[in-house]
Hints:
Chain A is 84% helix and 0% strand. Chain A has 273 residues and is mainly alpha-helical. Chain B has one helix and nine strands. In chain B, β6 (75-78) and β7 (81-85) form a beta hairpin. Helices cover 12% and strands 42% of the residues of chain B. Mean pLDDT of chain B is 84; it is low at 8-21. The chains are: A mainly alpha (273), B mainly beta (119). Chains A and B meet through α2, α6 and α8 of A and α1, β1 and β9 of B.
Amino acid sequence: MNASLAVLxxxxxxxxxxxxxxxxxxxxxxxxxxxxxxxxxxxxxALAVVLPAEFCVTALRMYxxxxxxxxxxxxxxxxxxxxxxxxxxSAGVALLAAxxxxxxxxxxxLAAAWLVLRSFQGHxxxxxxxxxxxxxxxLLAAAAWLGGLVQLALLPRPVPVxxxxxxxxxxxxxxxxxxxxxxxxxxxxxxxxxxxxxSPYGKTLIxxxxxxxxxxxxxxxxxxxxxxxxxxxxPEAETSLIRAVRFExxxxxxxxxxxxxxxxxxxxxxxxx
Amino acid sequence: xxxxxxxxxxxxxxxxxxxxxxxxxxEHAEPRVGSTVGSPPSSLxxxxxxxxxxxxxxxxxxxxxxxxxxxGALEHPESNVLTVSLPGLAPGSYTVSWSxxxxxxxxxxxxxxxxxxxx
Lengths: 273, 119
């Protein structure tokens, strides 16, 4: 059951980031390419499948622990905090899909607000208001960065220098939010250092941090190498940038897989009543 | 330590204060876990490390012979507290079995015992 939840969580997270990140890209960088818009629609389609599937798996888990079934189970699940947020997230996908004709700015603001619901639905939300809001900043930054890279990789070639430079600024701002928010979450969820190596949650978190470091190193190569080289007019720079961005998206996908796994693993706790 | 660093650590500590630990675990109970009480308690109160969903949670009480004791309905006075009223308990050892679902829908369970002292 946990494995299916992790796979659903991964699809959910990846689609959320492609959808919201694509809208941020449109508002902050440039209108996406035809292919970029198609990927946004694919993300909407994936969420339209994965959100009901998550509800069904969660209902099955609740049946297993409570014995409730049928209408009572569905209504009781919809009345929980998770259920209310699930309805909000589902309505948000419909709104974002229907609002395609809105200007990019309001649509991006709507996407940012929609991400709050996901943060309150998970582990961070169970911890309280501040952890959920910090998780939201983390998710917002991840969506802007990774979703932005997906759109950058899908732009028609050659990518103009000005666009690459704007993405560079966006990635830097996103990283400035991601690192402190991620550090806060790490200390929140793993309260003792030894639990990093002694619990499945801690070990998965270490693997995620290693991959996140690879992602940041690739970002640094783009920031300090490829984009300045494009500005200098070096002929191979744009090709190198896009190759690096594609690799970043691949590593980012693995980071999201580990993030989804963290969402279903019990967090380590160090006390007995 | 520089004042700015000290302030930053203080702010982080404040933000982390009251941290729960993911899935809902039992933080404390009344009667206390493993305790011996002088007189029969009128209710059982379980406090968890994070908010729980009462619709999918339950608390059961059994005596030393494994016989289930009928309790009052499950109450949820605070987001992380469950209580049940108890009938007059005879002296002896009792086991409390709990099964809860946290607000992020993760299920946990556990049990503990307490003893009611004979007069």
